[in-house]
Amino acid sequence: MTICIALAFAPGAFAAEATLPDVEVTGVRIQPLPAYSNSALGGIDIVHPRTSTSDTAKLLDGQPGVSLYSGGGVSSLPVIHGMADDRVRVKVDGMDLISGCANHMNPALSYIDPANVGSVKVFAGITPVSIGGDSIGGTVQVDSQAPEFARPGQATLMNGQASGFFRSNGNVQGGSLSAAIASETLRLSYTGSTVRSDNYKAAHDFKAAGLAATGRAWLAGDVVGSSRYESENHALGFALRHENHLVELKLGLQNIPYQGFPNQRMDMTGNDSQQVNLRYTGQYQWGALEGRVYEEKTQHAMQFGDDKQFLYGTAPGMPMNTDGKNTGALVKADILLSEQDILRVGGEYQQYRLNDWWPASGTAGGMQPNTFWNINNGQRDRFDLFGEWETNWNPQWLSQLGVRSDTVKMNTGTVQGYNTGMMYAADVAAFNASNRNRTDHNWDLTALARYTPDDGKDFEFGYAQKTRSPNLYERYSWSTGGMAMRMINWFGDGNGYVGNLNLKPEVAHTLSATADWHDAQGQWGLKATPYYTRIQDYIDASACAVTTGSCLATNPTTGFLHLTLANQSARIYGLDVSGHMPLAKTGDYGSFTASGVLNYTNGKNRTTGDNLYNIMPLNAKLAVEQRLGNWTNTIEGLLVDAKRNVSQVRNEMRTGGYGLLNLRSSYEWKLVRLDAGIENVFNKFYNLPLGGAYTGQGMTMSATGVAWGTPVPGMGRSIYAGATLKF
How many C-beta atoms surround the C-beta of residue 244 within 10 A? Predict the structure, then answer.
């Protein structure tokens, strides 16, 4: 084997190809649609944030139209124009990953560490049909570093880097390591990362100090319970390049031994994932071809963590287990019909299997003697076909038309409760007797155009119809028992939920436009994107039509509730504004650049007149960056308005407005990079507008064991530092 590897990396391991003379082509590169209604991150944009966060979703913070649902320390959920979770298509290295958890504790972006991220692209306007389907809110594409090969004539390329960091708030410690060896045609690489954090602290007390729960340790008044976490990720990469063809194989492993959730009644006590991802790309005279197959397996466990009550009579907690298997394939071709026309066609297949069961707990009481089957052999299969035609009519006009057919088939097996008592008997009988097989035939349509009158202006505008079928938990969570319902919650609002077999797919109709003013060199720019979306059969929370179990037909206006899901009508509109401009440039103090982002979103349920849940209030981020030699320094201000428009059906809590100041600095010298900064410089107390309800301690299994009315607070002052050594 050693000899084989040595030969593979030896120069000339593959037959030399005839060398053609270089041909220089001069022209203007046409940016494919949409180019100005989305945003991209790469290179230096994502290097510094790796020191300040271990949550990959937070790399998106500050992008136009994007906000974040808070969750665990590595499990935030991106929100695009007021829509989150499964409404946003998230692709990690081209894989459509699915959260295998009743509380969505393991979202797609939690499966890649920031240290392994090479590029991020956000489609916050209208997503082309070739990018993905089964979503209505937009698309996030996160990819690891592209493979780098040795240059022609270079014997062997060997490189890597090691980094470590510390953050004061939460006593966060972590690091990463990457290494690669490559010839001109073959590359082997490894990346690994680890991070561990204690509970973080708010700027001041937001609750009384005391025991976190019966039999648990003491929690100070400013400590946010159930916010500790630990995570470990490893990835191996193999790449083979021959002429215009590239084959990549990526193997990934994740182990999260624990991750607390301050806005959930349960905590993650284990998440193990194994990923296999094989990709081919090739350039041909007629265009480009891409193929991908992948499989991801997840073993997920939940239980009450260290800050939540564990013993309930004879019951040692409430174990909840999930096994998920996600298999997918993609074939896509970009066909050059002419110098002006590109046709993109392809097909995508995804097969998802899920088992969600809760082992019996205790020798007496309601959680024994049987295993509670929440979802038994859940099945969700997608088969998609798409076509997209892009035409460059002339130097001023570019258009794109797309159509995508999504067929979603869902089913699940019979279920059972912890016992055959009256708490479960009626629900079990009704669910098992029902027809659970569902097939949705969905259509996506897009029409985009760009007008470029001159070098200083670009205008994009378009329409999209996007469709999303319900997930397995939305359709197949079946119990109306209060305790079981409180364990089903991917919203972070502290309420309990039961699914609805009769849910229809959501269909969103979006109008969006982007105006981009800039100079020819891109030194300054101003971009504005207004949008309007109307959603038919929007899946929102609802009181039960008839009181069933703990799900009431009429609910109080305070406290935690038990709710179901229903198809209703909704509309969302808003405005994203972003810009940058140089301020000054001197020999003594370097260059100064200002940048800013402003986001406004308004969401309304047209059926009930209620506000949509977790809509980020008006917010703005302003920054001034200084570059002087090897130094880069940034002062950043974040301004957030009060959240007054809340969802009454969920008893959502209001939050106050606030302003934060952050400082960042970095220094690069040869192969060394140093990063440092202070988040929340003035230690300002604030509640997270999208943080949900605080359920991070206490008797969380009980409906009244946790006091209602406390939002999850944001983090107080945190000082961080990190170092990276390249080799």
Answer: 11
* CA gap 1, 8 in Å, rounded: 11
Q: Do residues 647 and 612 make contact, with C-beta atoms less than 8 angstroms apart?
A: yes
Burial class for 396, CB neighbours closer than 10 Å (0-12, 13-18, 19+):
exposed
Enclosing H/E stretch for 486: helix 482-486
User: Is residue 505 helix, strand or coil?
Assistant: coil
Fold of 38-726: Maltoporin; Chain A (2.40.170)
Contact (CB, 8 A) for 418 and 365: no
Query: 397-452: per-residue pLDDT in tens?
Result: 999 999 999 999 999 999 999 999 888 999 999 999 999 999 999 999 999 999 99
Burial of 345 (C-beta count, 10 Å sphere; 0-12/13-18/19+) = middle
Phi, psi angles (nearest 5°) of residue 717: -55, 135
Distance, in Å, from the CA atom of 27 to the CA atom of 24, rounded to the nearest integer, reads 10
Going from the C-alpha of 17 to that of each of 7, 23, 151, 185, 605, the distances in angstroms are 18, 17, 15, 12, 62
pLDDT, one tens digit per residue, over 76-124 is 999 999 999 999 999 999 999 999 999 999 999 999 999 999 999 999 8
pLDDT at residue 32, as a whole number = 59
What pTM did the predictor assign? 0.93
At 31 the three-state DSSP class reads coil
Tokens of 181: 């060896």
pLDDT over 60 at 11, yes or no? no
